Task: structure prediction
Amino acid sequence: MSRSMERPRSRWVAVGDSLSEGLGDPLPGGSLRSWASLFAEHLRQVAPQLQFTNLAVHGHHTRDAIHRQLPAALAVQPDLVTVFIRRQRRAARPAPRPRSIR
Result:
């Protein structure tokens, strides 16, 4: 298909954890803002028809994204999917005890 016949990119889905959801970046009124929603605002300046869906959920791991978010993302038939999931810290473990000095 030639570039002139390609349909414009119009559907974008963000998949991930709190990084994409926007946790920790509140707006006045209590709603959350994410890098993805800010990027969508910028994209809409050149592609007003852009449909943006943010499926990211705080606390989700890679397995959650694959089994829960990805099927929902594919149902939208997106032109673009972004996935940002940071490495999760394991539950806090007790600090190792230093060896006694003799």
